[in-house]
């Protein structure tokens, strides 16, 4: 039945696409007016501590609404007003209606805490060949041991994958295209990662085309992250309504990135930063981003199954506590990893203490 529904949806999308016009990139005025109306964004990349990856977050059997509510309450207490959240196409394939209902439930929870959401569709990072059903337990001391790409290498081997992804993107965007609880759509996280390089260009191009055909009220973006990926960077910067980027380096490097992107004249949002042992910390980056009027979305809120308190390339297989947390701000009970750091976050975010 579900396969029939997906086939019907695909045919409907193809018919719709034949009749739809692709809207242009937002003008500089529209982009800057939108950003001025929203005000400064401060927040985190969010996944509940109970989920090892995007699938465990969104599948019906493991969707943790209570945990999401509790941890977004923590986020609101820190003064955060935005979170960036990864989706995945496989729960949609399994049950499109249920998946969208869970998205709506999540959005209602986030909105109750006065937190807006940046949703991410595709991702080239970490483990290949995602699968529905029970997800692997986290490997002790290994950063993001269970995180999965979307769609991963399957797109290069399946003739029908691109049609499924088009149906998925257009269905989700079409359902939430006027939803004010959503800040923006991040169509593709770190395209070209995992050695894909320019082979990710086609899906990136298609994702922008599908998004512009649906024409949501929210802006579309894909964040630049690797200067060496010249062709992908050019495409991302030309197609994004609002410019987003990643920088996990110190304040000098980060300031250089901001200065290089200012020339495009569009609002800037950093959608990933804060890796303590790499010199990207709240005390040297967050105040700078506020002063520069650049949106600030750091990686990680609560220490959980993603194991992102461990560094990317510095595993601790014993699972013992790292001397310095790489990402994340809070323990599962909401207690700070670093109380002084939390005081700083609250101060910059305007929370009375």
TrEMBL record:
Keyword tags: Signal
Top-rank lineage group of the source organism: Bacteria
Membrane-traversing stretches: none
Signal sequence annotation: 1-22
Full protein name: Cellulase (Glycosyl hydrolase family 5)
């Amino acid at each position: 039945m579900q396969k029939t529904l997906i086939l019907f949806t695909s045919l409907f999308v193809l018919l719709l696409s034949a009749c739809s016009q692709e809207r242009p990139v937002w003008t500089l005025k529209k982009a800057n007016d939108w950003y001025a109306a929203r005000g400064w964004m401060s927040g985190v990349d969010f996944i509940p501590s109970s989920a090892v990856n995007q699938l465990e977050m969104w599948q019906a059997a493991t969707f943790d609404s209570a945990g999401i509510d509790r941890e977004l309450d923590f986020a609101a207490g820190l003064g955060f007003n935005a979170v960036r959240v990864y989706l995945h196409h496989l729960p949609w394939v399994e049950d499109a209606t249920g998946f969208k209902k869970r998205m709506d439930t999540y959005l209602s929870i986030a909105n109750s805490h006065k937190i807006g959401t940046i949703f991410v569709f595709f991702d080239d990072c970490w483990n290949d060949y995602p699968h529905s059903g029970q997800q692997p337990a986290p490997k002790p001391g290994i950063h993001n041991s269970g995180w999965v790409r979307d769609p991963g290498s399957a797109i290069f081997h399946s003739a029908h994958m691109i049609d499924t992804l088009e149906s998925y993107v257009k269905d989700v965007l079409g359902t939430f295209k006027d939803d004010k609880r959503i800040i923006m759509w991040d169509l593709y996280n770190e395209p070209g990662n995992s050695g894909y390089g320019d082979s990710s260009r086609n899906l990136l191009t298609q994702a922008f085309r599908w998004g512009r055909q649906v024409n949501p009220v929210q802006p579309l973006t894909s964040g630049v992250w690797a200067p060496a990926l010249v062709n992908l960077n050019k495409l991302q910067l030309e197609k994004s309504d609002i410019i987003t980027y990643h920088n996990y380096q110190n304040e000098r490097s980060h300031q250089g990135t901001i200065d290089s992107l200012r020339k495009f004249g569009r609002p800037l949002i950093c959608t990933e930063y804060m890796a303590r042992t790499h010199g990207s910390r709240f005390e040297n980056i967050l105040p700078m981003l506020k002063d520069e009027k650049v949106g600030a979305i750091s990686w990680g809120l609560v220490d959980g199954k993603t194991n992102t308190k461990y560094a990317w390339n510095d595993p601790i297989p014993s699972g013992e506590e790292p001397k310095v947390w790489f990402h994340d701000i809070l323990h599962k009970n909401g207690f700070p990893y670093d109380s002084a750091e939390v005081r700083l976050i609250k101060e910059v975010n305007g929370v009375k203490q």
